[in-house]
Automatic annotation (TrEMBL):
PROSITE patterns: GNAT
Coiled-coil features, chain-numbered ranges: none
Keyword Transferase: yes
Superkingdom, taxonomy of origin: Eukaryota
Keyword Transmembrane set for record: no
GO molecular function: histone H2A acetyltransferase activity; histone H4 acetyltransferase activity; protein N-terminal-serine acetyltransferase activity
Protein name from the UniProt record: N-alpha-acetyltransferase 40
Reaction it catalyzes: N-terminal L-seryl-[histone H4] + acetyl-CoA = N-terminal N(alpha)-acetyl-L-seryl-[histone H4] + CoA + H(+); N-terminal L-seryl-[histone H2A] + acetyl-CoA = N-terminal N(alpha)-acetyl-L-seryl-[histone H2A] + CoA + H(+)
Organism per entry: Gigaspora rosea
Length: 171
């Protein structure tokens, strides 16, 4: 797990400011779960025509799950769930986040998942912009803002976002 930089280099502002709070050992446990799958981006240098693989500069962690829906029969849906995406500050705003998310979605489509999903804190407007305006994610039907009584909506500081897949890759 060293590549993630826990607990010192991890971007945990979102959690610190949230109702959940920041708990590095809980986060490490989540990121180490048996079902966790990673795409890791590393720096590459070329020295005298030799390609040198350097330090990690970002990762996306996801799991294959079945997620709840609002269907009357309580059916669940095959989902690729993005638990975390983090890039080092120097690696941001260069298209790497888009590349990692697109690659994760391609994996989901290939393995017959019906949608991809993630949770984002409402305060992280940069991430919400990235997911919704750039990658085409929408507020999911099970997100608090769509299914909780408006009177209690302020108790929830996150949104659940998702993107439905219209086709399976390779079929
Ligand atoms: C959010 C994150 C994964 C985005 O990855 P990225 O590589 O920086 O994003 P990209 O370069 O692929 O940007 C794609 C688009 O996202 C949007 N975007 C990305 N970062 C943004 C920011 N800080 N503010 C506003 N918009 C942003 C832009 O619209 C950009 O589109 P453009 O090409 O028209 O400018 C990355 O910035 C990051 O690791 N942030 C810190 C950790 C984090 O917040 N993770 C998400 C937790 S839910």
């Amino acid at each position: 797990m060293d590549f993630i930089g826990l607990p010192t280099n991890y971007d945990c502002d979102d959690y610190e400011n949230s109702s959940i709070g920041w708990n590095p050992s809980e986060k490490l446990k989540e990121l180490s779960e048996a079902g966790a799958r990673y795409l890791i981006a590393r720096q590459v240098h070329t020295i005298n025509n030799n390609v040198i693989i350097g330090n990690p500069i970002g990762f996306v962690m996801f799991q294959f799950t079945f997620e709840e829906t609002m269907a009357d029969d309580d059916s669940k849906i095959e989902t690729i769930y993005c638990y975390e995406i983090q890039l080092t500050e120097e690696a941001r705003n260069k298209g790497l986040g888009t590349f990692l998310m697109n690659t994760m979605e391609r994996i989901g489509r290939y393995f017959g998942m019906k949608k991809s999903m993630l949770t984002a804190f409402k305060e992280n407007t940069a991430a919400l912009n990235f997911y919704c305006n750039h990658l085409g994610y929408e507020i999911d039907e099970i997100s608090p803002s769509r299914c909780v009584d408006p009177e209690y909506i302020d108790d929830y500081d996150y949104e659940i976002l998702s993107k439905r897949y219209e086709y399976r890759l390779g079929s």
